[in-house]
Design a protein that fits this description.
Elements: E1 7-12, H1 17-25, E2 31-37, E3 48-54, E4 59-60, E5 68-71, H2 84-107, E6 114-120, E7 131-132, H3 142-158, E8 163-169, E9 171-173, H4 179-183, E10 191-195, E11 204-206, H5 207-219, E12 225-229, H6 237-247, E13 253-257, H7 259-266, H8 271-274, E14 278-279, H9 282-285, H10 296-306
Parallel strand pairs: 1-2, 1-5, 2-3, 5-6, 6-8, 7-14, 8-12, 9-11, 10-13
Antiparallel strand pairs: 3-4
């Protein structure tokens, strides 16, 4: 199939952990990938090109007509302490990316088949043992406010596409970044930490399952609306650590990281590890999507073995 016959996917956030993995999983015979980039770059592959964009100036240097748009762009939630300035950046980086794409679609009279946007389970805030589905109301703390603005921007952009899919993503498990390397960083000295009392629910997803879900969202025209993008397992932080250790035959002590220490070190950002979200995936279970990894032990065993 020639490049002109392939479906064009615009990918925002293509340099991130999930974006890079997704590029490797997309079928090169079916899709041509155009990564939206903040700097000029020359592609070394015929299946990928780079399109310059500026989300502050709301500009995309292209006249292309994408068939699908996947927007994973956004400043890293846990990369820096949450100062007032950083909070504004976390929100604006997500809202501006969506509105830049919206402006392009409107000005160029382009109507892609689907707009797929990341969101996060932070939408729900800290909810303890409460069971949360896609219809549950938003929380009332910063991450919830960020996700509300994120999803509203996605919905506005999605009006210029045939379908809009919003994925509320949990902890993405990968050995190449995110939470898992931090979880395992002290295994060499036989120490494994859980946070606070360890009873908070941690919704998670294997990076390959998440990327398969993104690809399914493109290919399956029945996908539309909001989905909780987490594995079906409901597990607490302490039980997660115990299962990872057991399945991977790791020896050591499971010790708590006290709340007061986390608050001193991280400030409000400590909510990222202390909040509890007991997520159900009701809408995904009604689709044909199948998880390859439903248990955290099996997921981490695969990730460690393949170093992905």
């Amino acid at each position: 199939m020639s490049t002109s016959e392939k479906k064009i996917i615009w990918l925002a956030g293509g340099d991130g952990l999930v974006g890079k993995h997704l590029i490797g999983m997309l079928d090169p015979t079916s899709y041509h990938i155009a990564v939206l980039s903040r700097r000029k770059r020359v592609s070394v592959s015929s299946r990928i090109e780079y399109i310059l964009w500026d989300t502050e100036k709301q500009y995309i240097d292209s006249t292309q007509k994408p068939d699908f748009i996947i927007n994973l762009a956004g400043a890293g939630i846990a990369d820096q302490r949450w100062t007032d300035w950083r909070k504004k950046e976390l929100v604006s980086s997500r809202v501006n990316s969506a509105s830049t794409i919206e402006k392009y679609l409107k000005n160029h009279n382009v109507r892609p088949s689907a707009y797929i946007s990341a969101s996060a389970v932070g939408y729900y805030g800290h909810r303890g043992d409460e069971i949360l589905t896609e219809t549950s109301p938003a929380g009332d703390e910063f991450m919830a406010e960020c996700c509300i603005a994120w999803e509203q921007a996605a919905s506005h952009t999605g009006k210029y596409c045939e379908r809009t899919i919003i994925l509320r993503i949990g902890i993405v498990m990968s050995m190449l970044g995110g939470a898992l390397p931090k979880i395992l960083m002290t295994k060499g000295i036989g120490v494994f930490n859980y946070f606070g009392n360890g009873r908070q629910y941690y919704p998670w997803i294997h990076i390959s399952d998440l990327c398969n879900l993104l690809i399914t969202s493109i290919a399956d025209s029945s996908f539309s609306g909001v989905y909780n993008a987490v594995a079906p397992q409901e597990i607490t932080n302490r039980d997660m650590m115990a299962e990872i250790m057991n399945v991977n035959q790791m020896k050591g002590l499971i010790l708590p990281a006290p709340v007061f220490g986390l608050r001193i070190a991280l400030g409000e950002m400590a909510n990222v590890v202390l909040n509890s979200d007991r997520i159900r995936i009701d809408r995904l279970l009604r689709t044909n999507f199948k998880f390859k990894f439903e248990k955290i032990g099996d997921a981490t065993k695969d990730l460690i073995a393949l170093n992905i």
